Description:
- It comes from Bacteroides fluxus YIT 12057.
- It contains ten helices and 13 strands.
- The protein is α/β, with parallel strands linked by helices.
- It has helices spanning 3-10, 50-60, 94-106, 122-128, 131-137, 169-173, 206-210, 213-220, 263-274, 287-293, and strands at 33-34, 42-46, 73-78, 111-114, 141-142, 151-155, 164-168, 176-180, 182-186, 190-192, 229-238, 251-260, 305-310.
Amino acid sequence: MDRRDFLKTLAVAGAALTVQHSEAMDVLAQTFTNAGGGKVDLVAVMGGEPEIMFRRAIAEMGGMKAFIKPGQKVVVKPNIGWDKVPALAGNTNPKLVAEIIKQCFAAGAKEVTVFDHTCDDWQKCYKNSGIEAAAKAAGAKVMPAHLESYYRTISLPQGKKMKSAKVHEAILDSDVWINVPILKNHGGANLTISMKNHMGIVWDRGFFHQNDLQQCIADICTLQKKAVLNVVDAYRIMKTNGPRGRSASDVVLTKGLFISQDIVAVDTAAAKFFNQVRDMPLDSVAHLANGQALKVGTMDLDRLNIKRIKI
């Protein structure tokens, strides 16, 4: 498939919408290197169901065994922040979460824990998102995050506005963790993806909003224990009225998935993809540039070895 055909199908797989083909914003408009050999830095998959896209993506990254070792305690951290059903795209797709858990166990994980510091009532979020049932069916432990006693203070010496944070013990006690956000609009940060999904591992989210949200999002991503993988769910995108959403009219079925160890790169690619549905200049998602400035990752996708897959 050549670049033009791939771009044509990229955001319209399964969706009836007019895609904007802005050369400045198309996720794959840049001259990305096709991964013919060597380490793949980022994989973009389009056109399949969440679990199918993840299987293809993780295979291109070398398989789950490249990231999860036998006997490890693993945390899978989705967005479960809202009391919304999967069709409304407020939370990470439960099918994707279940597949990641299954692959962690297949790679030899001793245990897998799933949690999020929710915005709505945590029990309703866990249940109505479909994530609690999917995670348990896949063999994971589901842990609450609604009490301050679950959190311990860590230092963020590289942070500019945020120098410390209380982080959930599940992250701190794990051997590795996997960050699994959903791509959607956000009223404060403009977009919420992998970097902002870190707000679900901390206790005092009010600090972010009171002390330069876009900088604090970058600051929390400097924590020492970084996710071994960032898997962006772009199966459904909430294009407006995020992060909660109001109705199905806020949602577009786009059937995409992005995966990388570079959190800034994967969010940059996802943000460019979002721009095919709705204009969102990258400079308005300032935590991307802030993260790059802190050397958390790169926005320069031309430097990366990127694999594109259309299912």
